[in-house]
Amino acid sequence: MRIFDPHIHMTSRTTDDYERMAAAGVRAVVEPAFWLGQPRTSAATFVDYFDSLIGWEPFRAGQFGVRHHATVALNPKEANDPRCHPVLDLLPRYLDKDGVVAVGEIGYDSMTPAEDAAFAAQLALAVGHDLPALVHTPHRDKARGVERSLAVVTESGIDPGRVLVDHLNEVTVKLVRDTGCWLGFSIYPDTKMTPGRMVELLKTYGTERMLVNSAADWGRSDPLLTRATGEAMLLAGFTDDDVDRVLWRNPVEFYGQSGRLDLGDLDTPAATFAGNSILRGGE
Ligand SMILES: [Zn+2]
């Protein structure tokens, strides 16, 4: 089973995770920029964060045979903090980088006017830079959040086929299914979707434009739930080809629209990054 996790925050994970993911078949990941769990105090700290998303983290992933790409954005939660707004002016420089395959994650957290403004501005950046967009949907008041997100997407003029609407469930899948957008599902250990519930959705809605991710981060989460979902699909009678479509070909097709997805030569990692290896001391 080859697996592409289209949404995972590897910066918050350990090398043990990379080893277990590689052993489970995860060959590629996309890491969206998001918040750190505590507020950033200035836009300057995003510079170091984005630099690590396109520098150190891809290098670290490569040591385990995992290809790493990133999406960059001002995340919905921090769109509410005026200290972070200047990051919008930094984004164009990162959206031109090779390892950046979409604008994201953008969208709504609490559906405030500040989030409206950041969401629309960043969809415009996606259009301007000819990149796909990864849209986070709120964890509270989900249906209204998805409806409003879809309205903003339509208003932006971006091609819906270049938009991935993420963190969907049984209720919100219905709202997105016929919009032309791609559908993302985050499988968590004890909240939101489970592998079993995901399989039921795939039975109902099919495999087209459906993406499964672990969204693993600094909270309780499990980077192997993509694999568990693939196994649950097989047990439920889906074919190897169905699993490959959901866990590999769909994310490749979606992020491939950036023109920057590089999945060649996963077996020859770089020796060092900026003079450092993952062995302490740089040897
Ligand atoms: Zn996320």
UniProtKB/TrEMBL annotation:
A GO term, aspect molecular function: hydrolase activity
Pfam families registered for this protein in UniProt: TatD_DNase
Top-level division of the source organism's lineage: Bacteria
Annotated keywords: Hydrolase, Metal-binding
Membership in a protein family: Belongs to the metallo-dependent hydrolases superfamily.
Protein name: TatD family hydrolase
